Amino acid sequence: MNQRLAFLIIVIMAILSMVILGCGDSNDSDISCELDFISRNIKFSDIPELGKPIEMTFIFTVNEPVGDVLNPQSDFKAWLKFYRTKFDGSHIEAKQRIAIPTEEVVLSGSTTWQGSLSEDDTVQMKCTVRFPAEGIWDVIGSVREEREDEKGHTLTENVRLAITEEASGIFGDESLSEAGLDYLKNADYGHSGRIHPNEVRPVAIELNMPKPPLVNEEVEVTCTIESIEDYENYYVELGKFLFRASPERNEVVPVDDIVISGTTSWGGNLKNGCFEEFSFNIRFPKAGDWLVAVSGESPEDKTRSHNSDSIRLNVTDQRSSYGWEDFPSSNDHSHDDEAETEPMQPDDM
Fold first, then answer.
1. SS in 3 state form for the chain?
2. Along the 349 residues of the chain, how does pLDDT read in single tens digits?
């Protein structure tokens, strides 16, 4: 009996894992999920290129009777949104995606839809789009059940693109590798957001640099300290530089080998609502994965006042990027919930 019970528990856990995890990565440029009652696809007629018009279609299909999961009298709305993240600018810019007005991307066609849905219904929203700037672009298609009690379902689909002057590719598709843009998977561009103090961590420490530098290229690093409480004798310092010698081993590099000039620490009394800042210039002497880290705390309350920040970089002679090469990151956002990835400048539907 115990063996049968254990077997049943394992089977149930496996089924739950499949439901929770949803769809795996797709090798196609059509990113879809068949586990939901409405499947979604965002398709392009070709790999999008910088400034070039291209046909795009948002397709969604009802997989089962609407009455089984939804109110049969419900209306549905569908819409498209576009977001852009800079990958070649400052570290703060790389952490935030910006909502781009639809009219700056869509040249013609349909970006919204409203109506009723029944089993096996398919809706195709076709439009001609043009991506006007380099960056990591997120194209999000959403379908929402409209209800007076505001408890309607919203299903989203996200295709992530890398657009540069030289080449373009789609995340989760072999085109990214063929375009030589695999390094843009090193960091989770646009999804970590700014660092702000809160009740759990009253002090926020945030590092920034204007761009990822090349080997032996000098770059300024700025550390900003913000607090929502008063602390005496607060101290922040540059902790260390790490060089990833191999996937299994990191080397600690002396600060003096990297820092060229500037101030590498700050100490004093923090005031609620005030900002403090210090900066220093660095130069990485060889190619590879690097990490720069700072931390700070007050002796009054080492637990709550303690905080830290770091920047990971992949540095080469020809191009550099944020993040570490082949380092695991959660770049698959093909089924993001928009509420969990609020953009810097949200635009209304």
1. CHHHHHHHHHHHHHHHHHHHHCCCCCCCCCCCCCCCCEEEEEEECCCCCECCCEEEEEEEEECCCHHHHCCCCCEEEEEEEEEEECCCCCHHHHCECEEECHHHCEEEECCEEEECCCCCCEEEEEEEECECCCEEEEEEEEEEEECCCCCCCEEEEEEEEEECCCCEEECCCHHHHHCCCHHHHCCCCCECCCCCCCCCCCEEEEEECCCCCCCCCCEEEEEEEEECCCEEEEEEEEEEEEEEEECCEEEEECHHHCEEEECCEEEEEECCCCEEEEEEEECCCCCEEEEEEEEEECCCCHHHHCEEEEEEEEECCCCCEECCCCCCCCCCCCCCCHHHCCCCCCCCC
2. 444 444 444 334 443 433 333 333 333 334 344 346 788 999 999 999 999 999 999 999 888 665 565 565 568 899 999 999 999 999 999 999 999 999 999 999 999 999 988 878 899 999 999 999 999 999 999 998 887 666 667 889 999 999 999 999 999 999 999 999 999 998 989 988 888 899 889 999 999 999 999 999 999 999 999 999 999 999 999 988 999 988 888 999 999 999 999 999 999 999 999 899 999 999 999 999 999 999 999 998 888 889 999 999 999 999 999 999 876 554 444 333 332 233 333 333 3
